[in-house]
Amino acid sequence: MKDALFYSPEEIAKLLKISKGTVYELLRRGDIPSYRVGKQIRVSQADLQLYMHASDLPTKPPNTKIQVSLEKMIIENQGLIICGQDIILDILTRYLEKHNPMLRSLRSYVGSLDGLLALYKGTANITATHLWDGETGEYNIPYVRRLLPGQRTVIINLVYRTIGFYVAPGNPHAIYDWADLQEPNITIINRDKGSGTRVLLDEHLRNLNIDSRNIKGYENEEMSHIAVASAVARGMADVGLGTEKAALQVDEVEFVPLSKERYDLVLYRNDLEKSNFQTLLSILNSAEFKEEVDGMGGYDTARMGEIIAEL
Questions:
Q1: pLDDT attached to residue 59
Q2: 0.70 exceeded by the pTM?
Q3: Which of 41, 64, 177, 203 is deepest in the core (most CB within 10 A)?
């Protein structure tokens, strides 16, 4: 082992006697906190021990001092901690390190609400978010105001994504709108609480005065768009909600578009003056980065790098 304080996914698999695939699933779900150092994923010794002994000490609050101190250290040394789950953020991290090999950047794979809270608590300095507000019909701005009260922030567009339903080929249950989800013969697969997709569903249900208890499968959750699409493809559910990009990656799934969502980056205004954040802006406005994202399909980069709001 190269570093006694940090483990690779392969090393964790050997220690826990589980497959690498299971380890990556635990990391993706956030059951074991992880950090991205360059192109490598690493887990701290303290976080691994907490996971291994969680069942032994169910009432003991987690000791996150080592984790928080690492995050603080990275931020104080002009490093970047980027929250969010879309693969575009991994590509962005690669571009940042390409432009500045000395830059230390970590990825935190959490949902939109948790990302904004991490920004507020100072354990992240950039977060991606796609939170729709049912009262205003606006993305992100209302949530940034509520969850980062009194903070001077900037919201910058990353991409627009098409959001819709995953259904079986041919859409046998004729699911086209939100109200169709309450039909008694339809089972859904939901996203986890805190994700932008879960918020979108719940806000539409509230606006339509639909009781979630009347939706079969509402309590069944998955942690990613791919997992939701896969559940529909395998017949575990009749419908799920997610991005068009994930539908393109899963066979035996048809996509029913509903709307476009704005996927933004949120950061503090004062940070824009720092060199690493200037590098970030230059990448977002570069033809090279936009062309790579466009080539992936499923994304609209027309407003990438544009400042949406200064709060």
A1: 41
A2: yes
A3: 41
